[in-house]
């Protein structure tokens, strides 16, 4: 009886099983649709009324390159001011002092709640409220001489960015376990030292991705500075095509330089995120593009 039960429970002999990969027809159809669309888009641009010779000519024009430099400098200055203010305001908002946290909240409410375009115009016309500014040791000076269009744009963009950055930094700080702060304070570390040496270095892996996106956004937002007379790249391009009527060609030139700058910023962001991600997970970090390229070349060399 037991032998019969054993024979009935034994699996049937099915022979060698062959694993057949599933055919994903939807993926192939989707890929075909994308390829056809890209082909149509490339064909449309290739036969559009665009003088690519003009694009090539203006791509390295000194006036546009100077405007690009101003765009990059304005981006760097605005982000530095925004990051410094963002960290300061984030710490203020997390303070147990109601006055300090309230001032931090008010700053975020004002500068995040009003358009950056409005803020640029306000800083550009600040001389209407304060015609003269007294500087310690330098005496008085006219506000319009101090707050030039570039300075007004840097202040406006930096203050606006600081409001958004403070929320990013605050979220990063709150993502760190409070036990580490308590342990550091138990060892006699001050609150400021704990924040600078324990909390913020760990919070960077949470803070960096949105800060990188904000930097790319800042690069594009600098185009609004043309409203107050800053000669950034898009403003210079407009000055040119108002004369020669090569509107699309000049806009394509600006797009090329914007994409180039964004690509460089994306690479920097990638390696910064990779640097601060070390030791944060048990998983090994993925290979960088350069490491993958080096590995591929070594494999080809070994085969040959």
Automatic annotation (TrEMBL):
Parts forming coiled coils: none
Domain ABC transmembrane type-1: 68-269
InterPro entries: AA_ABC_transptr_permease_3TM (IPR010065), ArtM/GltK/GlnP/TcyL/YhdX-like (IPR043429), MetI-like (IPR000515), MetI-like_sf (IPR035906)
SUPFAM superfamilies: MetI-like
Pfam family, one: BPD_transp_1
UniProt KW Transmembrane keyword: yes
Keywords: Amino-acid transport, Cell membrane, Membrane, Transmembrane, Transmembrane helix, Transport
Main location: membrane
Membrane topology: Multi-pass membrane protein
Annotated CDD domains: TM_PBP2
Source taxon at top rank: Bacteria
Cell location: Cell membrane
Family to which this protein belongs: Belongs to the binding-protein-dependent transport system permease family.
Name listed for the protein in its UniProt record: Amino acid ABC transporter permease
Originating organism: Streptomyces endophyticus
